[in-house]
């Protein structure tokens, strides 16, 4: 058992709860029980469950979007290499600390019923799409072609992760193949 938990420990546990039980599973008492601590630890870090939910959305934006963009921008010199790195990073094994390969799907499902989650998903999708579109623009595709290619690549990523969960796709090879078709039409 951990001596003291950080806000990130609670956020990760909340994502695991979301992934296995849906938005209704994000409850202080249930998460405390899963972490084998008292609810008091929760209230040390968060005012209430809505504050935890907002922290989850903010954390997801940082870790699964901004940190990925920063890594890709610093790890590749040109647009083609950035897109290839983005695909590799995006299809890497999911982090079980957050609930594994169904975490993004669980967040998207949560957004169907919660306006704050829906707003966050829309903002994050927009940020991700703008980044991918900028890479296609740097490859000298026109604005419409760049937007379409970005949308297709991003939609494929989301869909391939869903199919992979059921053993129906292999994102680590399928997404790079799609990217190759989008870069070299």
Summarize it.
With 185 residues, this protein is mainly α.
Describe this structure in words.
Helix content is 75%, strand content 0%. It is built from nine helices and no strands. The mean pLDDT is 95. The chain is mostly helical.
Features:
185 residues, 9 helices, 75% helix, elongated, mainly alpha, 0% strand
Helix content: over 70%
Q: Which regions have little confidence, pLDDT < 50, spanning 5+ residues?
A: none
Number of strands: 0
Shape: elongated
What is the mean pLDDT?
95
Radius of gyration: 18 Å
Strand proportion: under 5%
What's the multimeric state? Answer: single chain
- Distance N terminus to C terminus? 54 Å
String of helices and strands: HHHHHHHHH
The major beta sheet can be summarized as: none
Number of helices: 9
Label the structural class.
mainly alpha
What is this structure's SSE topology?
Layout: H1 7-21, H2 28-35, H3 39-45, H4 49-75, H5 79-90, H6 103-111, H7 115-138, H8 143-165, H9 171-183
Helix pairs in contact: 1-2, 1-4, 1-6, 4-5, 4-7, 5-7, 5-9, 6-7, 7-8, 8-9
